[in-house]
Amino acid sequence: MEMYTWPEDRLQVYLDTQELKRYGLDPRNGLVHRERAEAFFVSLLWMASNHFQVQENAQLDVEFNEGEAGDIFLLVHFYDEHGNQMPLFCETSQNEEVLLFRFATKENLGAFALRAAEYDLKGGTLLYWYPYDYLLFTCSEMTQQYLLTALLEEYGEKTYIDPGCVQKRGKVINVRSALQYLASPE
After folding, report:
1. CA separation (Å) from 92 to 52, 100, 169?
2. Cis before residue 185, ω within 30 degrees of 0?
3. Environment class of residue 83 by beta-carbon count within 10 Å: exposed (0-12), middle (13-18) or buried (19+)?
4. Which of 180, 162, 178 shows the shortest CA–CA distance to 170?
5. Last residue of a domain, one of 79, 113, 135
6. Residue 152 — φ and ψ, nearest 5°?
7. Predicted structure pTM score
8. How many domains, in total, are found in the chain?
9. ∠ CA 74-78-83, rounded to 5°
10. Binning pLDDT at 50, 70 and 90, where does residue 27 land?
11. Which of 14, 17, 156, 167 could disulfide-link 70, Cβ–Cβ 3.0 to 4.6 Å?
12. pLDDT in tens, 101-145
């Protein structure tokens, strides 16, 4: 499952055919396994409330779009208890000396690391908080901040949640040398 903000008030979710079966969804015939499909939407709301700062009592409105290979794209709108559309994030008082980016796929994270290596960018802390990888950079690690930010925006998505929350709820994979770690051959 891949999730992205689109643009700032909706969530785009991509599910391939195997994930659809696991969640009991069938784009051609509708929902085929009610309990698993309900569990999917509960988990979707849980992930959105954690990673995108959506209130837990939000209501969902979902548009389904089927791809040619049988996969689907969901466009999810969130509404408050009064029916007003909610933004996916609000700016927090996040420290200006910190960059935190979320990566929806390992492929995007790896491609970013390879591009960063081409420019000799180093540092960063790699975190994993299901289902996302996060890269955290402090001011002291941002020697080429504009280049780093541009590359991060190309492959990842800036997040406005508190970095301490990600560190507390997720798992720290690598501290202060994430780009070198990701770019090294395995």
Report:
1. 12, 12, 18
2. no
3. exposed
4. 162
5. 79
6. -60, -40
7. 0.73
8. 2
9. 135
10. low
11. 17
12. 999 899 999 999 999 999 999 999 999 998 899 999 988 777 788
